[in-house]
Amino acid sequence: MAVLWTAEALAEATGGRVTGGWDAVQGLSIDTRELSPGDLFVALRGITHDGHVYVKQALEAGAAAALVSHVPDGCANGNLLLVDDTLKALEALGIAGRARTHAKVVGVTGSVGKTSTKEMIRTMLAPHGRTHAATRSFNNHWGVPLTLARMPADTEFAVIEIGMNHSGEIAPLSRMARPHIALITTVEAVHLEAFDSVEGIADAKAEIFAGLEPGGIAILNADNPHFERLKAAAGKVGATIVSFGRTSDQIRLKDVQVSGAVTTVSLAVHGTPALIKLGAPGAHFAMNALGALASVEAVGADIARAALDLGDWTPPDGRGSRVRLAVPDGEILLLDESYNANPASVRAALAVLAATEPGQGRRRPGRRIAFLGDMLELGPSETSLHRSLADLDAVAHIDTFHTCGPRMKALHQALPVDKRGVYCADSVQLAEAVEKVVDAGDVCMVKGSLGASMRHVVSAFKALGTPLPDNRPTAHEDA
Fold this sequence. Notes:
It contains 15 helices and 23 strands. The protein has helices at residues 7-14, 55-60, 86-99, 114-125, 143-149, 170-177, 198-205, 227-236, 283-298, 303-309, 343-355, 382-387, 409-414, 427-437, 455-462; strands spanning 5-6, 17-19, 24-25, 27-29, 39-42, 65-68, 80-82, 104-109, 131-133, 157-161, 181-184, 217-221, 240-245, 251-259, 262-269, 272-278, 321-327, 330-337, 368-372, 400-404, 420-424, 443-447, 466-468. The strands form 4 sheets. Strands 9-10-8-11-12-13-14-15-16 form a 9-stranded mixed sheet, sandwiched between helices. Helix 3 packs across helix 5 and helix 14 packs parallel to helix 15 (455-462). The radius of gyration is 23 Å and the shape is globular. Mean pLDDT is 93; it is low at 472-479.
């Protein structure tokens, strides 16, 4: 594997001191469970964990060296890079990683769809050149610098996801990433616990323009109620505005059709008709795809070829991925939306579930079943926002709702009696009920905020049977 950083370059970027006999690293890791031989292990201090405790383990597992603020026990003769503060050193390394590359950088933020859109852009840019993007949702105060520090010097395209929970978090990350293109997928009522209004959320998302390179491009959702507000913020830094959506005259959405596992999107690119197919069901993915296409065009890639390559994209785990499970008498289809949740993303996920045809069990036809955990960080409106899910049109097409968490109790009570399933205090209890409430032929969707830990429910599903190969037609194959 190629050298990512020499010890000399690491020391220069971080102001650190090298000890031991190492001279280079091939990658970076902050988790010993995901460490590869040759990595630099970065010992970060968290609220509940201190990475320094795992330094000895990391070195024994093959780490080339460790970035530390002090010599951990048992590592006196180890390969170390000693700094005053490991997080600040990681930030400095991220800045250095960005500075040494000539890559075109796309920054992605928004209330919903950041990771899916990032992966769409990655999929489309990869055939055009060496492309680097964050793994999973590494979009916070340590995830962004880690992504930048992991970026090879010869990268041609980079896609950096930037998230936030509070005002003031995006601007410093944007200045670190220095994007040429800044995409805001949408602005929705999320993180209301930390904001007085959705307008405040829009202003926080607009912080991505703080680091936009001179002559940069802002890509905005023309259908969002806060489009003009975001457009004004982008205009203040001299950005060129590119819009997408049903009301856009640039990248215009004309129609969306969901058929089985494929979403067909009709659009017009600067007036020229086009058609794209996505290998996942969901009208909400269409808007993500338009923003992704606009980003790809903005970096100078061939948009026609990119549109074809988009057919190879599938949703990441926890964000709409589909898992077929072989169980007695048939199979269960799991729609895994477990990574996170807010009112907008739950609406979209329920719409997908409502439109997905169940299978056939031995004893009866399959059902559509939702497993929902709390939506967090919604502030004073959390009860009404949970309760209002019962009013969605999709509810009529879903057989049963199993819920967990104190906030989801409002939805449980608001649902028609014949649609109320199991209600549990938390996801661990709901996971224990899974085996009793599902059967062959069912299509089941799991969703909840990250703090609701709906991964326990997903694990319970996967314990029911053997994963089957996905035999759905790809977007390229589908007629």
